Amino acid sequence: MSNDETLTAACPRCGVELRAADEDELVTIVQQHVRNDHGFDRELPRKHILAYLRKTETSDPVDPED
Question: pLDDT at position 59, please?
Fold first, then answer.
């Protein structure tokens, strides 16, 4: 990955696009987003976030309303 590349992930609940320089930062940003914007009172485990991100890389976007 070059220095100017960023990782992105779209929140399945609200569609906001989250951006980070690396995987560690993206996990932190996702955890902050779900806590601050969706009121989660517990931290999502890193392994769950990464599994979701890897799944969405290889599949079509999922409509959270389905």
Answer: 58
Phi-psi region of 9 (alpha: psi -120 to 50; beta: other; left: phi over 0): beta
Any bridge partners for residue 17, and if so which?
10
The CA distance from 7 to 19, in Å, is 6
Strand partners of residue 19: 8
On whether the CB atoms of residues 56 and 9 are closer than 8 A, the answer is yes
Structural tokens at position 49: 């976030």
Q: Which tens digits make up the pLDDT trace of 7-37?
A: 999 999 999 999 999 999 999 999 999 999 9
